[in-house]
Design brief:
Elements: H1 2-19, E1 26-27, H2 35-42, E2 49-57, E3 60-67, H3 74-81, E4 85-87, H4 90-97, E5 115-118, E6 128-129, E7 136-137, H5 142-149, E8 152-154
Parallel strand pairs: 2-6, 3-5, 5-8
Antiparallel strand pairs: 1-7, 2-3, 2-4
Length: about 170
């Protein structure tokens, strides 16, 4: 399986070499296959990890990139795409994106897929999406990531309930 991951990483490196040579693909010793591992590896908060989810809505397969701990709101998604979101299985994700689970990102994709960036990313100046391998990532502004991938901004994350812990009685 090593070859596939190497090819996936090199497809992302080639993508950045061509489209954004100023952005370095960071390869770490530690795995960043989960949001928590990636946040630890890159010294950022979990929400700054831009996780890419491969979904199907009706006949359309897409990548949705959202803040690390954000969860998909099925109702918001259905309202927007008029179809229920269906997560793709591991093998299908690899076949369609060319990237292994834990390394899926909107860059250097094996097939042309529409990319959507969730508004949950907008509150950060910099986010850390994977870069084609379980131990690679890039640091990029959400706006630039959307521009590079031709992404459309959408709002499909569950609303975060912020509780004020300093309530005066």
């Amino acid at each position: 399986m090593g070859d596939g991951c190497d090819m996936s990483l090199s497809s992302v490196q080639a993508y950045f070499a061509e489209h954004a040579p100023d952005i370095e693909v960071i390869v770490t010793e530690a795995s960043s296959a989960t949001v928590q591992l990636a946040a630890a590896a890159h010294g950022v908060e979990p929400d700054q990890i831009a996780k890419s989810i491969c979904l199907r809505a009706g006949d359309e397969t897409m990548i949705v990139v959202m803040a690390g701990t954000a969860r998909l709101d099925n109702k918001k998604f259905r309202d927007l795409f008029t179809a229920k979101p269906r997560m793709l299985g591991g093998e299908e994700v690899v076949d369609i994106t060319g990237h292994p689970i834990g390394g899926v990102c909107p860059f250097g994709l094996a097939s042309a897929l529409p990319v959507y960036c969730d508004m949950s990313l907008r509150r950060f100046d910099e986010v850390v999406p994977a870069a084609g391998a379980t131990n690679s990532a890039v640091r990029i502004s959400p706006v630039r990531m959307a521009e590079l991938t031709g992404a459309v901004w959408i709002d499909v994350a569950q609303d975060v309930v912020v509780t004020d812990t300093f309530q005066s009685s």
